[in-house]
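Throughout our pipeline, every protein is held as a single compact record rather than as scattered files. Nothing more is needed to write down the fold, since each code stands for a local backbone conformation. For reference, a complete record is included directly beneath this paragraph.
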Amino acid sequence: MRKGFAREHNVISSRIFSDRVIEKICANLPCDRESLVAIKGVSANKIRQYADEIVEVVNTYCKENSLEAKKIDKADTVKDTLRLLKSGKTIAEIAKERNYVESTIEGHLAKAISNGLIEINEVMPTSEAQQIANYFAADGNKISLSVIRERVPAEISWGKLRMVLAWLQKGE
């Protein structure tokens, strides 16, 4: 299907969807447009152009192979990350298993901290969080992470900054 779309638009196949997006569609089997939107790498433009055909192919494939197409909720991605974290996996292991970069997983964890789903000490030692927190001003609500990033040591990732900011903003 991707090759057909590419021929139709006179572009290379990867301009339609990357191999990674195709793998995610195949792994997740989205049953409708909303579920397709929840797959990372599927833009609004691609949804407008190709969603109906993709969903039809997925649903047909599932029926022919006695599989169930899935309803995917974008919010489930944080829950999926938390499930793997609570099973004892590291951020690097979660990223590899979920086919994301580590910063994306750290973003999920920052959101989970912000929403009170986990505590900072579940992702890093509290002493490390407190050391990073020293780079933040007293009011965590008016923070520019890019300004903070310039002041912290290079080994402190953007994700760690986001997690500590979420922790500070919760008032822990």
